[in-house]
Automatic annotation (TrEMBL):
Listed InterPro entries: Integrase_cat-core (IPR001584), IS30-like_HTH (IPR025246), RNaseH-like_sf (IPR012337), RNaseH_sf (IPR036397), Transposase-Integrase (IPR051917), Transposase_IS30-like (IPR053392)
Keywords annotated in UniProt: DNA recombination
Pfam families: HTH_38
MF terms in GO: nucleic acid binding; transposase activity
UniProt GO cellular component terms: cytosol
Protein name: IS30 family transposase
Any one Gene Ontology BP term: DNA recombination
């Protein structure tokens, strides 16, 4: 028997129906379904169909029992029984609070006796009756259709094997050739909105570029990189190395737009793009995680990148990244 209770599914009810038809004892049914016998008794009591006009049709039927259970759960939803709680949840969602933040705050609020979990809020947002409110637009990912719980979009096809960092040529890894970049996304507090920053570092010169993005969608991010790097000669934009975040899934736009190859770190191995990780720490000194990017312009990011590129670096023989970058451009790589 499972230590974690799970609601009956239609498949469970079908098995229960067939076992009942065979007049299997409740104790044996419970054993076969991996449930406590009281769970079986409760299921039969609550979801048996009763017809007063035609008693001969009274009984436990799998599909009807499933419909009865779903209808009861719909009627008993907390956000339907408590209108004030419902309005509070809607207001917090429109203020860009996440369901986890809303549920956590309610749990800490002693003045509010009703408690809900984040899953209750997600179901409320995506249920048929309330979907028309459009509350999904205020969720962190703003998805129109909910992704199944516990699932992740498979990335094996998004980042093919021939783009793995293990396939990247050695002259990129040992920094003997100019024009190879590392990229990452700097994320800030969710309640401040989806705006973020793409940080890009040229591996040999440590030259930094910073780009402001209004969302985490891949195509706009890649389009900004293409636009920014299209002004550079081809020798200065040969390749980019990213992690496996979905924001970089549109990497083919780089090859189409500026002829740059893309490489990807192994899963959970950000240290494989150490140059940009190091640069991110430098950027965080000026832009911590609670920075409101709504008040930061692209020109301010460009100025900050210029500041970082004007600091002498020991690994460059105390030249600045700007000086090293300019020298490589003059020398043709």
């Amino acid at each position: 028997m499972s230590l974690c209770y799970q609601q009956f599914t239609l498949a469970d009810r079908r098995r229960l129906y067939h076992l009942r038809e065979r007049k299997v004892p409740v104790g044996e049914i419970a054993r076969q379904l991996g449930r406590h016998r009281s769970t079986i008794y409760r299921e039969l009591k609550r979801n048996t169909f009763h017809d007063r006009e035609f008693p001969e049709y009274t009984g436990y039927f799998d599909t009807i029992a499933d419909d009865i259970a779903k209808e009861r759960r719909r009627r008993l939803r907390k956000l339907r029984r408590h209108p004030r709680l419902r309005e509070l949840v809607i207001d917090r969602l429109k203020a860009y609070w996440s369901p986890e933040q809303i549920a956590g705050r309610l749990a800490e609020d002693s003045a509010n006796p009703v408690r809900i979990c984040p899953e209750t809020i997600y179901r409320f947002v995506y249920c048929k009756e309330d979907y028309g409110l459009g509350l999904y637009r205020y969720l962190p990912e703003a998805r129109r259709k909910r992704r199944p719980r516990g699932s992740r979009r498979p990335r094996g096809n998004v980042f093919p094997a021939d783009c793995r960092i293990s396939q990247r040529p050695d002259f990129i890894g040992n920094r003997t050739e100019f024009g190879h970049w590392e990229g990452d996304l700097l994320i800030f507090k969710r309640e401040l909105g989806p705006t973020n920053i793409t940080s890009l570092v040229e591996r040999k010169s440590r030259y930094t570029v910073m780009l402001k993005n209004n969302s985490r969608h891949s195509r706009p991010i890649m389009d900004k990189i293409v636009h920014a790097f299209s002004l550079l000669p081809a020798l200065a934009r040969r390749s980019f190395t990213f992690d496996r975040g979905t924001e970089f899934s549109g990497f083919r736009a780089l090859e189409e737009g500026i002829g740059a190859r893309s490489w990807f770190c192994d899963p959970s191995a950000p240290w494989q793009k150490g140059a940009v990780e190091n640069t991110n720490k430098r950027i965080r000194r000026f832009m911590p995680g609670d920075t409101d990017l709504a008040n930061v312009t692209q020109q301010q990011l460009t100025d900050l990148a210029h500041h970082l590129n004007s600091q002498p670096r020991k690994c460059l023989g105390y030249r600045t990244p700007a000086e090293a970058f300019a020298a490589h451009l003059r020398e043709g790589g």
